[in-house]
Design brief:
Aspartate Aminotransferase, domain 2, seven-stranded mixed β-sheet, alpha/beta, four-stranded antiparallel β-sheet, single chain, 20 helices, about 50% helix
């Protein structure tokens, strides 16, 4: 070592020792430890701010501090329990007499009568529920009867007998349902652009238990695909605030940072706003066709161009629109592009159990190519039980439901779906026209399909919803802005005028007698929408769910 450098180091050491000699050894030991602690706290704070934003972080800290005041936490918990009890109504009392263990001796055919009696406790949903039941008529009519036979009736035919115990996990044993699933996926893909040259000719997918699982799988596949392609280890996805809550679930399940971006003035995904959030960790952006809250289609072409240019995945949620929009377009309705014909779309979810009129528990997730879909699968090579591979989140899957979906699609055909689409689109237009004629109400945006959301500047819309509930209607309460919506199905075709009359009467009732309805939920919905501490609202929902199931 150079002598001058060595001399400089010795002088520095002597100077440092001289300076530090004025401090006690314990102080010298604690100082760096304290510095590390402060640095760790700052790092944690920065991480939380990055995840939740500065405003939410500071508000959360403030509310946590307030709860430390003696008596405040107990008061908040007591008030929270009141809200939970209100949400439950008489839920607890309805559970009196519920069985908690197996009967000693089997009940045999008596089970049928018990189940028949229990069915009477269900709400009378025919024509009065938003969405929920998409098939027209009653359980004993037309397509309803066919699906019942295919999936649940054991008396009138043997279709369910044939497939009740089948499971596509066992490819070599139950080749019938393997074929049914393949054909359901292929027929669905054909509706959504698989035959277009622009699709690339590799569209593939699987059946799932519902829209949420389809979305979960699409997000998981996108995450792993982008990790393999770009090496992204801290994945982020960007969605408009109108996107389904299944993406929140996916973000929690798969450890993905979720950015929710405000919509534009037309209540569509704001492409420019989404673009500002894209960074080196972005794996996925999302669009809906249409969105659940307001029935509005996001600008899929613009989002596809953004995704393609950024080299990221783009999922389109067609859970509601998959079996309506293709036929509405052919019928001449002004439907913007929404499927695999749009460059940049990498995956699509579509529910067969909604407007596909299949039994509940059937959905499809589609991918542009096999390279992406492979990341959906899970293969296990080190299990003592042998080699294992599964395509979806479930291992065993009910072949009877797959058979029911196939039966529904084959029985209706393109002509059946086209006629259904014509009916519900026309009903939607009639409902929109009727709402516009009620001066106290306004429609949210410009609905593209069969969901009509509406609010009011003159009356409390949640009180209107409570009055409608008292008349037997089951609509969906929305927030930001406060509104309610009806998702039009074939059940509503014969009751359009009844709905509009009850809506007019409900608005007039609230206008003449404003204030909470006895037993209504308007105060809770209103307060929840305005409550700044969203963690408290989240706790309310968790407590409600915990005591309800």
């Amino acid at each position: 070592m150079d002598s001058s450098l060595l001399s400089s180091l010795n002088r520095f050491r002597a100077s440092a020792n001289s300076f530090l000699s004025q401090y006690e050894p314990l102080t010298l030991l604690l100082a760096p430890l304290l510095s590390l602690l402060v640095a760790s706290i700052l790092q944690f704070f920065v991480h939380v701010v990055h995840d939740k934003g500065l405003k939410v972080t500071l508000l959360g800290f403030l509310m946590s501090s307030v709860k430390l005041v003696p008596g405040v936490k107990n008061y908040i918990n007591a008030e929270k329990q009141k809200v939970v009890d209100k949400l439950q109504s008489t839920g607890k009392s309805k559970r009196d007499g519920w069985r908690v263990e197996l009967p000693k001796a089997g009940l045999g055919v008596e089970v049928r009568e018990i189940m028949k009696d229990e069915k009477k406790n269900d709400v009378v949903w025919r024509g009065k529920c938003s969405g929920t039941v998409y098939i027209g008529g009653s359980e004993s009519e037309g397509h309803f009867s066919l699906i019942n036979e295919a999936c649940s009736m054991l008396v009138r035919c043997h279709i369910y007998d044939w497939f009740a115990h089948t499971n596509p996990l066992h490819l070599d044993v139950f080749q019938s349902v393997v074929r049914f699933e393949s054909e359901v996926v292929a027929m669905t893909a054909a509706l959504l652009g698989s035959k277009e040259k622009s699709s690339g000719g590799q569209i593939c997918g699987n059946m799932t238990s519902g829209g949420t699982e389809s979305i979960l799988l699409a997000v998981k596949s996108s995450r792993d695909y982008m990790k393999a392609k770009k090496g992204i280890k801290r994945p982020e996805m960007i969605i408009p605030v109108s996107a389904h809550s299944a993406y929140d679930k996916a973000a929690q399940y798969f450890n993905i940072k979720l950015w929710r971006v405000p919509v534009n003035t037309e209540f569509q995904a704001d492409v420019k706003a989404i673009k500002r959030f894209i960074n080196k960790n972005t794996i996925l952006i999302v669009g809906s066709a249409p969105g659940f809250p307001h029935g509005i289609i996001d600008p899929i072409e613009e989002l596809g161009e953004l995704a393609s240019g950024s080299g990221i995945c783009f999922h389109v949620d067609l859970c509601l629109g998959g079996f309506v929009l293709p036929f509405a377009r052919k019928l001449g309705y002004p439907i913007p592009p929404f499927d695999f014909s749009v460059e940049g779309v990498t995956s699509i979810s579509v529910d067969v159990h909604k407007y596909g009129l299949a039994p509940k528990g059937t959905s499809v997730v589609l991918y542009r190519n096999h390279d992406i879909r492979k990341h959906q699968f899970v293969a296990v090579t080190e299990w003592s039980g042998g080699l294992y591979v599964s395509p979806t989140m479930a291992g065993s899957r009910p072949g009877g439901l797959i058979a029911g979906a196939w039966a529904a699609m084959m029985s209706l055909g393109s002509e059946g779906y086209s006629e259904n689409t014509r009916e519900i689109m026309e009903v939607s237009k009639r409902i929109q026209k009727g709402i516009k004629e009620i001066p106290e109400l306004f429609i949210i945006g410009r609905p593209d399909m069969t969901i009509v959301a509406f609010g009011s500047n003159d009356v409390n819309i949640f009180e209107v919803n409570d009055i409608m509930s008292s008349k037997g209607w089951h609509l969906n309460a929305l927030q930001r802005p406060d509104s309610i919506h009806i998702c039009v199905t074939l059940q509503h075709v014969p009751v359009v005028e009844d709905f509009l009359k009850d809506l007019r009467d409900s608005v007039q009732t609230v206008k003449e007698n404003p204030g909470p309805v006895s037993g209504g939920l308007a105060p809770i919905y209103g307060a929840a929408g305005k409550m700044p501490d969203r963690v408290m609202v989240q706790d309310l929902l968790l407590d409600f769910m915990d005591s309800s199931c």
